């Protein structure tokens, strides 16, 4: 794991957005296409704002979430709605947003169709992850019903996930799909998350799911 500490959040957001853009540009130059997988939640908004204004060959960039809450886009809990309002706009308006939600009562009903949509965009070129104070990442929560399945090296691309801390059912990329990424960044802010990261390094992934990605990740932190 590489740990980068920044003097303030603003600098971190700008610098990380810049790293992500240049990594995507490398893939676009080399392969003519790239994929960017991002978290929802409250932290990454400023990175999305910056990226949406960057000049890239966006029509050849596919964008998808690490995980989605099983709510329609009209919900203020929808990560897809966050992406549409902060990332898939401006210059990035032409990017291809690959869905992790489709209207249905349960994620199980749509899981295969959603996984079929994601599969052609793997391996991920650039993966950005968040982390909760409980050391979850994506929707890999400690104590979640299918965490063991999602940690397995033979896990499918996507799994439904339910956990007390998750509020609603979720759909999440699994550990092997996430670990296949060519570049992995973890974005965290504040002293509580820094302490949680330190703790995660001493625990197995069953207790600290972020641990399953840390050996491959660059962690970006600012107070
Ligand atoms: O849908 C989600 O909730 C996210 O994808 C999740 O994994 C998030 O990255 C962490 O919960 C951190 O969230 P905050 O940035 O809001 O602390």
UniProtKB/TrEMBL annotation:
It catalyses: 6-phospho-D-glucono-1,5-lactone + H2O = 6-phospho-D-gluconate + H(+). Pathway: Carbohydrate degradation; pentose phosphate pathway; D-ribulose 5-phosphate from D-glucose 6-phosphate (oxidative stage): step 2/3. Pfam families: Glucosamine_iso (PF01182). Keywords: Hydrolase. One of its GO terms (molecular function) is 6-phosphogluconolactonase activity. Belongs to the glucosamine/galactosamine-6-phosphate isomerase family. 6-phosphogluconolactonase subfamily. It comes from the Bacteria. Residues 8-214 form the Glucosamine/galactosamine-6-phosphate isomerase domain. GO terms for biological process: carbohydrate metabolic process; pentose-phosphate shunt. This is 6-phosphogluconolactonase. Hydrolysis of 6-phosphogluconolactone to 6-phosphogluconate. Its EC number is 3.1.1.31.
């Amino acid at each position: 794991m590489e740990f980068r500490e920044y003097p303030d959040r603003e600098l971190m957001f700008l610098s990380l957005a810049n790293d992500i853009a240049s990594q995507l540009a490398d893939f676009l130059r080399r392969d003519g296409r790239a994929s960017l997988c991002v978290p929802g939640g409250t932290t990454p908004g400023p990175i999305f704002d910056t990226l949406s204004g960057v000049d890239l060959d966006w029509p050849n960039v596919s964008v998808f979430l690490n995980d989605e809450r099983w709510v329609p886009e009209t919900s203020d809990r929808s990560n897809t709605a966050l992406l549409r309002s902060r990332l898939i706009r401006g210059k990035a308006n032409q990017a291809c947003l690959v869905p992790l939600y489709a209207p249905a009562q349960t994620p199980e009903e749509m899981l295969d169709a959603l996984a079929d949509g994601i599969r052609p965009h793997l391996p991920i070129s650039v993966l950005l992850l968040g982390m909760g104070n409980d050391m979850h990442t994506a929707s890999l929560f400690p104590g979640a019903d299918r965490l063991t399945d999602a940690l397995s090296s033979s896990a499918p691309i996507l799994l439904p996930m339910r956990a007390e801390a998750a509020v609603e059912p979720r759909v999440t990329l699994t550990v092997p799909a996430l670990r296949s990424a060519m570049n992995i960044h973890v974005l965290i802010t504040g002293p509580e998350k820094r302490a949680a990261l330190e703790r995660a390094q001493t625990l197995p992934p069953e207790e600290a799911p972020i641990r399953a990605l840390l050996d491959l990740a660059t962690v970006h932190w600012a107070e």
